[in-house]
Every structure is written in C-alpha cells, then in structure tokens.
Specification:
The structure is a single chain. The protein has 16 helices and 33 strands. The protein is about 30% helix and about 25% strand.
Length: about 700
C-alpha cells in the first residue's frame, strides 16, 4: 500500500490510501516491465507527481531456506516540489499463525510464523540518501483479508512532520483480546526514497542476505537473464521490431506472468434441479487472470488462451495451471466457468455473477492450450497420462449436457427465456455474452461455435490417446463426424446469406413498445430513463443470418477443408471493409447487422457487437496462417490477408500502449482506441504470439 501525504491531513479524503488495484485510481500508468513468472520482476507505478519502482528477487537457500527481497525506488517528477509519500509493508494471516512488530536500536522488523511459510522475518534497509524518514507501525486484528485497507484507515492519526505540516501516521494500537493477525510497517519520506524489504525464513543465516549491493548485483543478473531468454524464445529482433516495440512485448508478457494468482476457497454453486445455493468443496487454484483491476479471478475459457503465451515462456507453469483447473472437475465432469475462491476474490465480484450453475458450460479452450503444449513441448507424456481421464470426463459432460436435438449439433445451455429487458437473451456460457443469437431460446437451437469447439477438443483427445497408448478410435470417429464439411454445411450453412450461421427460433423484425404503449421503431430511441419495454415478435425456425465472429469459427479452429469453396467465400467476406474488416483488426459483428453496436440492455454497453477482441483476432490470424501454409487453391489469398491483419492488430495495440500505457480488454472498431478493462493482459497479451508468429 502507499499514500501521498498532505496538503491537509485533517481533511477527509485529502490522502488516498492505495491498496486494491482499481481502474478509478486514476494512475498515469502501472504494470510489470519484467517478470519471469517465478523469482524475479520489475513493476512500475506512475502517479501524477511521482514514480516508484518495485523490483523483487526470490531465491532458495540450501534445502529448506528461502529469501524474497524487494527494492522500492521512488522519485518525484517535479524536483521543485517533491511530495511526501508513505509506503506500508504489511503481513496478514487468514489462518493460524502469529505475528508481531519488533523495534530495537533504530531497526524495525515484522516477525511471525505460518503454516505455509514456517518461521519468517521481514526487515527493512533504507538508503542513506533518502530524505526525512519516519517509521511508524501498527499491530492489530483484521476480520478478513478483504478489509485490510479499511482497517488501516481507521487507525491513522495526524502527527507533525515538517514545515508546520502534518502527516497521517499509524498509531501502533495493539488489540490483544482477539489476537494480532495484521502488522504494518510505515515508511514516510519526502522523495526521493529507496529502501529494501527483506523477507526470509529463520533458517537463513545473516551472511550474504539479499540487500544493499548484493541485491543490486542479483537484480542486474536476473534482468540480463530475462532479456536473454526473451530474445531466445520470441526472437523479435529477427522480425525487425524496434527496441521500443520489443520492450512493449516484454511488458505484455510480464503483466500476464505477474498477474498469475493463487486462490483458495469454495465456489457458490446451484444445481439446475434446486433453487438452493450451496458451497462447493474447498479448492485451490493457481491460474492466470484476465485483469488485475476488474477481473482478478479465474475464468475457464480465458485461461485456455492465456496458456498459448505462457507455454512458450515456461511449460512448467502451464502444466501447473492446467492441472489446477482439471482438478476442479466435479463428479459429473463439470467445471465452474468462473472461479471465485475466498473472501478477497468475492469482494471484487458483482453479486449476480458469484453463483455458478451446474448446467452452464464454457468454451473448452483448455484443449486448445493442451494442443499448443504438446506442439511446443514434446516431453509431456507423463503429464498427459495423469490428466487424460479428467479430460475425458470433462469432454463427456460437454458432449451430453450441451447436445442438440440433431446428431452432431450442440447448443449452449443457460440462455433465459425471452426477457423483456433484453433485446436478445444473453449467452454467457459461450463467452460471447451479448453476441446476437436466435431471438427465442429453444432446445432446437444449433450453435456453430460450440460445434467447432467440440470438434477441436475431440481431435486433441484422439491425439493424446495415441501418444499415451490408449484407444483413440472413439475420439477419431467423433472428430471425423464434426469436421465433415458436408455435414457442417447441412447444419450451419445459410445458403441465402452465404455464411455459416447459428440456427434457431428467430425473428429479425422486433416490435418494441414503451411502457405507455407507444411503438418505438428505432433501437437508438431507447434511453436509460425508460422504465421497461415489451418485445412482440413472430419468430420462425431459421438461420439467424448474423455475420460476425461466430461465422468465422470453421476458419478459426481449422475445421474447413483447404479446398472448400466456403473458405474462399469466408476469406473474401473477411477482407470487406463494409462487413468485419478494419485497419485495427477484425470487428466482432458486421456493420450491416441490425445489432451492430446496439446495447442489449439499458445498463450494459455493447461488448461483442462491433468491438475488436484480441483472443478472436488471435484465432483468426492463427487460422489464416494455417491456410496460408497448407496446399490449396486459396493459399495465397489466406497469406495476403494474414500478413495485413497481423500488421494491423500489432500496430494498433502497440500504438494504444504508447499513448495510454496499457493493453486493453477490447478496441474500438472505428477509432482503434482501447476500451473496457485495463490493464487486460490476459488474452490481449497474445499480441506477443502474433508478433513472434507463434500460434
């Protein structure tokens, strides 16, 4: 935590304690510049008046000892008016253990013991050229890890510092009746400031501790090792990228690696057969997350994309993440699509998204990640042997629970009945939340994207079965059926629109009435002040005729034969600027669609109705690269579009990063401006794969 002091410490809100990672913190920028995924990282935060850098190093000492040291360096961006800033280093326990604050002869430390760490010691070493250093502390009790900042704020008192000004100091209160489980060390200085935090197990002797010059040398060594490995893995120099572009790629990778998180707790689940919400079994999850600021939790289909980048850097991390996710499978074979484990995680999630329902799936992109792992790291046989049964169980659940009425058809469960406050009922299970589907959910629906996901997954299972000596014939048969282009045509080719499409009970013409019975003939006339509206339509079973990301799945997941005339039509449509093509990437929905950039409710802006999403562009670029490499009549066409699209996507993400300091959740299809959550260095960090041409 940190807090700028002054101008008037007595005024409510004049000092802002920063603890949670929040978009409304209004930082200039922040993020990891380097992170190796395990033992080294450099993080930088830029406030309006100052910048501070945190560099950490972790190392093993002997068989059981360990050290973790961080160096904080802070300096003012205006040397004529250097601000006073407080930094708070804290230790908190959520289980059994003990903590205390130690101070003697000007030296301060936090000492403690926990089940995970054993006996440990946190000490501080401040640089001699730091200015006006004041040390304060707090020992007390906190009711939960989600209220650390609130608890801290309640124990500030104003104290004189310099020039008749006061700063907010911790009062050192001890609360012994409930025990001490929260200890904080406060360092206050007028910038510049440099200090080291040294966390070590008590088994480590005092010689050669990671501090001062020893830490400096170790940081230089680790930084050099990171740069060398990055060059070896991605080789961006050979593709003529500038140093600035390469540093951007390092930051994108590092933010993904630096956001990998550890969670423990119970999901809240509801069976489709009951209205009662229950706590699922206790679970542990080690996973990448989409966004530190808005989505600090695990998302099933997101992680399948993230691993395409993580695997290139460190396959061991990928295997660990995949193992944790597969271990979440319940007896039926279901994996909750969002993992909200523990009180900290729940504190960052809107209440309507906390409960997970056991009929709701999510795209099995994890199979795509496993395929990527096999392709890039050959020595994974033992890993595959261990987890193959869990993969089979998950696939079987998907195959049964999401099956359609017609053989080889599938549809996403969980769509609500025709809702008067939604234009088209959401399809959260697909990951493409508000992407327009058939207007009236029905069991005869056929969802193209899910069918393609199942085709890909069956192919991966067939491949794994062969590798580990299991019978692959059943999965080969499923894969053969699901990649049969003639059968795909019969179920999903809209011969009128000449596109691949969903099928269902659908009405394009929607009559909308205001609450006073007035017909509204234009969606744009809706406003948040409208109380409610009704939609009266006359649907028929038909292809939806909606052209967008879903239509491209046969290309994205490489289902189409390379000589298919459908591929030629798709490539031609893909490049049309009056449909999906932009100079920033492929938009999610055709500009000719009546749903293009239209909100689905009063309160939710459009997401998958025009914006550019990098995970989908990654799959499109990967598909184009595939068809540019395999023999076929459209090889050159695919190659030309691939080259142009790849350039457009990379240039825009890089441009927006240079302007605003972040990688974004989505990008505007008209301006290219980053939108949505930031920093979004889950799947948007796949720009690094695209730069390196590693798919």
């Amino acid at each position: 935590m940190w807090m700028k002091q002054f101008p008037d410490s007595r005024k409510q809100g004049s000092n802002k304690l920063r603890h949670w990672c929040k978009e409304d913190d209004e930082l200039v920028k922040y993020g990891w510049l380097r992170h190796d995924g395990s033992s080294f990282g450099i993080h930088e935060v830029e406030e309006e008046e100052f910048i501070f850098n945190t560099t950490f190093v972790k190392r093993q000492v002997g068989h059981h000892g360990w050290e973790w040291s961080a160096r904080i360096t802070a300096f003012s961006t205006n040397q004529n008016n250097a601000p006073v800033v407080s930094f708070f280093t804290y230790a908190a326990l959520d289980k059994q253990g003990n903590l205390s604050y130690f101070k003697n002869n000007g030296k301060s430390a936090i000492v403690g013991s926990s089940e995970e760490l054993g006996d440990f010691h946190i000490s501080f070493k401040t640089s001699t050229d730091s200015r006006i250093i004041v040390h304060d502390s707090f020992e007390g009790h906190v009711s939960g890890l989600d209220v650390l900042d609130k608890t801290l704020s309640e124990h500030f008192v104003p104290k004189p510092l310099v020039e008749n000004k006061e700063y907010m100091s911790l009062n050192g209160t001890k609360e012994t009746d409930r025990g001490i489980n929260f200890v904080v060390h406060q360092i206050t200085a007028q910038l510049p400031l440099k200090f080291d935090i040294i966390l070590k197990s008590n088994s480590v002797r005092s010689e050669n501790i990671l501090q001062g010059e020893i830490l400096t040398r170790e940081i230089e060594k680790r930084s050099g090792e990171f740069d060398k490995k990055f060059s070896s893995v991605f080789n961006l120099e050979s593709k003529k990228y500038t140093l600035k572009a390469i540093n951007f790629a390092k930051a994108a990778l590092s933010n993904m690696l630096g956001s990998i998180s550890y969670f423990h707790g119970s999901s809240r689940v509801q069976s489709e057969k009951s209205e009662e919400v229950l706590k699922h079994r206790q679970a542990t999850l080690y996973t990448s997350i989409p966004s530190r600021s808005k989505f600090p939790r695990g998302f099933l289909w997101n992680v399948g994309f993230d691993l395409h980048l993580i695997t290139l850097w460190d396959a061991k991390i990928s295997k660990d993440i995949i193992a944790h996710w597969l271990n979440l499978i319940n007896e039926e074979g279901w994996i909750p699509r969002e993992q909200i484990l523990g009180e900290e995680a729940e504190a960052k999630v809107p209440s309507e998204f906390i409960v997970q329902r056991n009929n709701i799936a999510n795209p099995p992109s994890l199979f795509l990640a496993i395929q990527h792992l096999i392709k890039n790291k050959q020595n994974v046989k033992v890993f595959l042997e261990i987890f193959f049964p869990k993969m089979e169980k998950w696939f079987e659940w998907l195959q049964v629970s999401q099956a359609g009425k017609i053989h080889t058809s599938f549809y996403w469960r969980g769509r609500k009945g025709f809702a008067e406050m939604e234009f088209i009922p959401y399809t959260y299970a697909s990951g493409l939340d508000d992407y327009p589907r058939a207007s009236h959910p029905d069991e005869n629906e056929r969802h193209l994207d899910l069918r393609c996901w199942m085709a890909m997954a069956s192919g991966v299972l067939a491949n794994i079965a062969k590798r580990i000596g299991e019978d692959s014939s059943a999965y080969e048969k499923i894969y053969e059926d699901l990649t049969d282009n003639e059968l795909l045509d019969r179920l999903h080719w809209d011969s009128k629109q000449k596109i691949f499409s969903d099928y269902g009970l659908h009405a394009n013409d929607i009559d909308i009435y205001s609450d006073d019975g007035v017909l509204i003939d234009n969606i744009d006339m809706f406003s948040p002040t409208s109380k409610f509206y009704y939609v009266h339509a006359h649907p028929t079973f038909r292809y939806t005729g909606i052209f967008g990301y879903v239509s491209l799945y046969p290309l994205m997941l490489k289902i189409l034969d390379s000589d298919s005339p459908r591929l030629e039509k798709m490539l031609s449509d893909l490049r049309k600027e009056d449909l999906l093509w932009t100079k920033y990437g492929i938009r999610s929905l055709s500009i000719k669609s009546e749903f293009y950039n239209k909100p689905n409710t009063f309160t939710d802006p459009p997401h998958w109705r025009g914006a550019i999403w990098i995970n989908m562009n990654y799959l499109i670029i990967s598909g184009l690269h595939h068809y540019s490499q395999v023999p076929g009549p459209y090889q050159n066409q695919a190659s030309n579009i691939y080259t142009e699209l790849r350039k457009n996507v990379v240039q825009n993400i890089f441009k927006q990063y240079n302007k605003r300091g972040y990688v974004f959740e989505q990008y505007d299809d008209i301006t290219g401006i980053g939108k949505g959550s930031y920093p979004f260095t889950g799947w948007s960090a796949l720009v690094v794969n695209i730069m390196a041409e590693k798919y």
